[in-house]
Amino acid sequence: MVHARYAALAATAAMGHAKISAQVHRELQAGGTAQDLVVNFRRVDIEALVLPESTDYVHQLVQTLSDHSNKSKQVVADLLGARVESACEDKFFYIDNTYFPCDKLTEAQVRNLAASPHVASIAKAAVMELSPVQSTSNNATVIATANQWGVDKISSPLAWAKGKRGAGVVVANIDTGVRQSHNAVKNNWRADFGWYDPSGGASVTPKDYQGHGSHTMGTIVGQVNGIGVAPDAKWIACVGCSSSSCAQAHLTACAQWLLCPTNSQGVQDCTKAPHVINNSWGSTNGQATWFLPMVAAWRAAGIIPVFSNGNSGSACGTVGSPGMSPDVIGVGASDASDELAYFSSRGPTYDNRIKPDISAPGTDIVSIDFNTDNGYAYMSGTSMAAPHVTGAVAIYLSANPGASYAQVYAALTGSVDKGSLTPNNQNCGGVSDSTYPNNNYGYAKISAQVHRELLVEGVVQEVVVNFVPVNLDSMVLLDASGAYRSGLVDALIAQSKKAKRVVDNVLGIRINGHCDKFFYIDNTFFPCGSLTTNEIRALANSPSVQSISKAVVARVNPLKVTAFESDAAAAAANQWGVDKIQASAVWATNATGTGIVVANIDTGVRLTHEAVSSNWRSDFGWFDPDAGSTTPSDSNGHGTHVMGTIAGQVNGIGVAPGAKWIACLGCPNSSCPQATLTACAQWLLCPTDALGNKDCTKAPHVINNSWGSTDGASTWFEPSISAWRAAGIIPVFSNGNSGNDCGTVGSPGMSPQVIAVGATDSTDGLAYFSSRGPTYDNRIKPDLSAPGVNIVSAYSATDTTYAYINLKHQLLFQTNKIRAVHSIGSVTWNDGLAIQMQAWADTCPGFQHGGPSGWQNLATYDRCGFQECMAIAGAAWLWYDQEETLWNYDTNQCSTGAWADCGHFSNMMSPQVSSMACGWSECGNGNYVWCNYVTPVMYPQVPLSTISKEQLAASLVG
Q1: How many CA atoms lie within 13 A of 480 on its CB side?
Q2: Which pLDDT tens digit goes with each residue over 915-926?
Q3: Residues 912 and 936: beta-carbon distance below 8 Å
Q4: CA separation (Å) from 204 to 241, 625, 689, 871?
Q5: How far is CA 233 from the centre of its chain?
Q6: Could you tell me the CA-to-CA distances from 529 to 112, 526, 616 in Å, in that order?
Q7: Global pTM exceeds 0.70
Q8: How does DSSP classify residue 623?
Q9: Distance between CA 634 and CA 765 in Å, rounded?
Q10: So which residues are the catalytic ones?
């Protein structure tokens, strides 16, 4: 019996020895004591807990955890007795059932604790790190008031437009604190149960010890300078890191406080817990699991944990902890070009799981600088990426109150954009980086607009599923004869049929399936109606799917040619552009385009116009993908103007008057939906007639495309261009009208496969609006330039009208005419500002002020239609007429006493104004014009008019 008892004691001692970490052993052997310890008591199995379902669930969870912690306190008291020699207070935490002795323990005390069956392990307390890659301060005046690039990249403004800005959601961070008085966050701090500093700080309102926490919180909820993803969310904060280091005891204190907050009097209220917690801290030890019990408690309480993935990147297997946990959303970092940041840690985890879960903007992120109340700073790191996701979660929860972690995770990972990512053959963990999810991007870069709709609504509309396109370079067809195009098209159709089978297998029978669209030219699928999160994910998981994104809406590219002249005003001699490129010299050799078929994808063509009525090729000559009309017509006027310049036969407007023309209506107005453009591209590759009969020999020789997007990195049209090129069709594209600055070339003009054309004026100067290169990948564009200013051509108003005047002429002429009768000098047109104004207008913002900062007038206007713009009183008269009667010429202010009642008049009539610029849109829900003036005063001295108002009104038109 004695021997048996000895054996039992030896076994107990051995088990206690095994509970003590090697670091603690070494410290005890060296000095007989150990400090900075954490004693991990056996934890509550939260998943096994059976708690009654009620609104008080979290409180009952906390009470259960607290009861276990109290038992642990008793174990410590029984084993160690009263530690009267301690000058500090030991810490016990119920959230993970840990004990942090505040000073040294002797070897005997450590071994006594380890021998207890209630103790799971004894280790050195962890120290975590904050590790942004860079930080650069900037004065507030340097930071633009437009949205920061990361906020725009995840399409936060599109969610805001639907009223989803995070209202009703509380976010939190465990970080270095937050500068509560900063202008960006001072108004949305939740003061009650809103701040905890376990490091011992005495501040009763949030402060920041180092700056990192203010920056991350600014990205989540910042309300100024476009820095915050969810600006209407409330925030609370806990100091887990009083420097760039984060002590385990402080992190645990924060985790527990956020599970069930207490106020400064120690009153506890679990209903004050946040909905989502950002954690931009971690350790390079990818096997550390000490934080998992806290994550489990958060998850049980319905709190969403978001963690940065770490900044040890480049090599595989560098993911840190707690980002490596399967129970958190781990976030990698991408840059503005959607490339994975060099520092972003890669997976797999130590147990071979894929991480990160998702990637988000994390390079050169502008947010709060904690040194002043209006300072801003650039920082880079996965620390900056995680807050973008936290903000996105807040938006989703605002739209979907009570959503579970699983629902949030599915929404975040439910739509991806693989197409814009470039695999680099870093196949970490044996997972190819060309398949998703992988250990570089996780589920890849979520397509921003698809992501936004899934977050806000749970479904997405107007989506395009891009299947892997056919590699035309690898195709071997019989020859380059007339049968070549048919063989090419047959091969493309075969691939499209496979894509349709994938959709049928994945989605099954769809209620809206009758109006789904499949296009063989680029192997795309445009679902009719909406797709759910699960449907998006199921499609994205197919190896046949390359990417899923929102369908693009391009625009036609003129500077709003909307006014008209009669045929009498269009000289019978050649127009200046036709002569400039010496077309008549070529005509003299009998080369007028005879035998050539040209086409345009545009707003249509007015078939009956005198300039083009005689050279339309009627067989296989017109396609209207949306409305199905059978003869050419024009919805806007742009397409008729373009075709007139190509092949017009009267008044010297056309370059190739002997050519035949066909057309496809790709832009029903000034907007051009991707599906409609793709339908046109496919029809022009191999035209069909009204009965659906296909004849590839009827394809045109050259296609004009005067439409595009300001997104110079967009490549969605490349497969269509490749098919055209393979079929011997010449693609010509405009280069864009975002000019003046370098790098403004749009797409598809930026493609290396197309002839991209810039615009010149009659003096051979480059037009101010003509977009410049280089392309996003540093290639030269445009390829060449041609006449593009004040071009007279056919217009769709009547069969004999021609256009070159635009709304600019009306606005400038009528403004100066009105100023002149008040003896005020003329203003000039500010070309540089006009580009910015038009860029704002082209976003179709509706009836609201915005765009470039300054003194701005806004009005609706009448699209000129059958009348010349110069023949009607426009916005300038509207602003003047309505407010001039209120102007007090004696006091130089509005007679109502409110400046805003005469603000339009004051802006336009101020003698101090030297120039103006306007932008206008004919999209969305109306026709709107915005004009900025440089630079008026609020109360200008305006002389009286020299003529009556009736006389002035009559002088403006005619």
Answers
A1: 5
A2: 999 988 866 567
A3: yes
A4: 17, 65, 76, 68
A5: 19
A6: 67, 9, 36
A7: no
A8: E
A9: 31
A10: 175, 212, 383
